[in-house]
Amino acid sequence: MRDYYPPVEPYDSGLLDVGDGNEIYWETCGDPGGKPALFLHGGPGGGLLPDNRRFFDPAAYRIVLFDQRNCGRSLPYAGDPAVSLERNTTAHLVADIERLREHLGVERWLVFGGSWGTTLALAYAQAHPGRVSELVLRGVWLVRPSDEAWAFTPGGAAHLFPGEWAAFRDAIPAAEQDDLVAAYGRRITDPDPAVHLPAARAWMAWELSANTLLPMTPPDLGDALILAFARITHHYISNGGFLPGEGLLAGVDRIRHVPAVIVNGRYDVKTPPDQAWDLHRAWPEAELHIVEDAGHGGSEPGTRHLLIEATDRFRDAR
Fold first, then answer.
1. Mean pLDDT, residues 133-145 taken together
2. What is the DSSP string of 266-313?
3. Tens digit of pLDDT for each residue in 234-259?
4. For the chain, which residues make up each domain, given as ranges?
5. Among this protein's residues, is 115 annotated catalytic?
6. How are strands ordered across the β-sheet holding 260-265?
7. From CA 279, how far away is CA 122, in angstroms rounded?
8. Active-site position among 57, 96, 268, 278
9. Known active-site residue 159
10. Which PANTHER family match (predicted)?
């Protein structure tokens, strides 16, 4: 069973001006002359974690990571309720990736994404297929109306996490519970901390409730991070991921030639395996693995093993 590569620190980092008053934090690790690989974090709004660097052999890869707009160390930070998210859409993030690629002098790179990172990886690859050498995708999120209904209506994940769902639902008055996403949006965007902070905490608690197959102790997160995550995630969910009406499956022909590995936990409650299966049906050339003893987390042993196996397999391909 493959484990993470040892911890590695960046050899370079910076803030890149991407326009609209935004700067994105980026870092590079591993071998400066190695095969370029880009890691796309989840959320949206989740930001980077040190372990994200460890899916790649640092002796073979030039590992590039960045915090997407308004989260992590990127500026301005959405933990400030006065920061506008108007210029934070999927199209903006795809353009940011291209600007970062040009800034770093990368011709083509392997693109690795988890959860929301799969959505962004697919959107980027379909927009710039000539810049992607391979795709490694974990926990596929297509952001279709049915996928959103699974997460935010009583007929989906609520059946598996009834107590957590009740806490999420009942943080909103009964008269507004017919549209929880809209009700949370009114509160998360309210300028009053007495309104937006409880809503953001309840939103984050529901997001974290189904992350792994076996329960894990929730991380200790500060209010600013919780608010940034809740604001950005809600912003994307309430706008269909800012994806075209035909969705990501319609663009598969543009990337059919790109070698790809798709990994999804059998018991992934956040991005159930039907989404990975539907992507594979549209794109049978992509290699699909359903991990029988895993949920949503990229750190779960079976999932981590397959992801690192994929990056190891691709490291010598140019």
1. 97
2. TT-SSS-HHHHHHHHHH-TTSEEEEETT--S-TTSHHHHHHHHHHHHH
3. 999 999 999 988 899 999 999 999 99
4. 12-144+242-314, 146-240
5. yes
6. 12-19, 22-30, 61-66, 35-40, 109-114, 132-138, 260-265, 287-291
7. 10
8. 268
9. no
10. PROLINE IMINOPEPTIDASE
Sequence-distant (6+) residues with CB within 8 A of 146 are none
- Side-chain half-sphere exposure of 33, counting CA atoms within 13 A: 0
CB atoms within 10 A of CB 193: 12
Q: pLDDT-based confidence at 218, cuts 50/70/90?
A: low
Instruction: Count CA within 13 A, CB hemisphere, residue 26.
Output: 24
Whether the bond between 76 and the residue before it is cis, its omega within 30 degrees of 0, is yes
Q: Is the pLDDT of residue 215 over 80?
A: no
Distance set, CA 281 to CA 246, 278, 288, 294 (Å): 16, 5, 10, 22
CA distances from 19 to 15, 22, 64, 111, 148 (A): 12, 6, 20, 23, 31
- Report d(CA 176, CA 247) in Å as an integer: 29
Distance from C-alpha of 241 to C-alpha of 44, rounded to nearest angstrom: 9
Q: Please, which pLDDT band fits residue 81 given cuts at 50, 70 and 90?
A: very high
**Residue 205 backbone phi and psi in degrees, to 5:** -60, -40
Active site annotation includes 296: yes
In whole angstroms, how far apart are CA 31 and each of 9, 12, 60, 249?
A: 11, 11, 6, 35
**Inter-helix orientation angle 223-237/180-188, to 10°:** 140
Of 171, 174, 119, give the one whose Cα is nearest residue 147. 119
Average pLDDT, the chain: 96
CB 67 within 8 A of CB 97: no
Selecting among 74, 115, 133, 209, the annotated active-site residue is 115
Backbone angles phi, psi at 246, to 5 degrees: -80, -10
- Closest residue by Cα to residue 206 from 238, 170, 240, 179: 170
The alpha carbon of residue 5 and the mean position of all alpha carbons in its chain are separated, in whole angstroms, by 21
